Amino acid sequence: MKTTHKLYLIALALISFAASSCSSDDPVPENDGELITDVTLTFQEIDESGNAVGDSFDFTASDAEGIEVGSAPDIETVTLTKGKTYQMSIEVYNSIAEEDITEEIQEESDEHQFYFLGSAFVGTPVLSYEYDDEGGVILGLKGIVTVASNPGTNNATMRILLRHALDKGYPGADNPHFEDYAQAGGESDLDIPFPLILE
Questions:
Q1: Is 162 helix (H, G, I), strand (E, B) or coil?
Q2: ∠ CA(97), CA(103), CA(104), 5° rounding?
Q3: What residues does each domain of the chain span?
Q4: Contacts of residue 99, Cβ cutoff 8 Å, sequence gap at least 6
Q5: Torsion of CA 77, 78, 82, 88, to 10 degrees
Q6: pTM score, two decimals?
Q7: CB neighbours (10 Å) of residue 107?
Q8: What are phi and psi of 25, to 5 degrees?
Q9: Alpha carbon distance 70, 58 (integer Å)
């Protein structure tokens, strides 16, 4: 009787050990950010009524290995005119997979948001930004950029930051110049410092 009881306890201990070792150390899959190789900022000057003036023009950032993982991304200098207002749109692309990431960001607008920081937008800003996405969503693929008429400097940095899986309801997270963006959680899919010159 005692031998049977001991065998039962040993078997029970082995089963418990096996069950706990199988389940506790299984890796949790991570949701890695998208690989982004190309970002294009398109500017279209608009008048006070929102009508287009002249032709649109582009500035790009690119790295064949991925902007966030490559060693030396090629980032063009953005040149804008003092006192002008522009509609700015952002296109995001993965040239390795030949995939338009812009569409995915649009479809997952509840999980993504662009912030516009750097010396161009915060501190003593020379630019202001207003979200202008379709349907009134706060995303940043489209927005209105206004250039100061008499900026204190002609040079600044436009830091374009894309956050993923953030709490968009966090207080202040709807501000395009929210410097405490990390407090809203999530992770950065993109963080590009575009040099800016004002003419």
A1: strand
A2: 75
A3: 38-198
A4: 93
A5: -170
A6: 0.82
A7: 10
A8: -105, 10
A9: 22
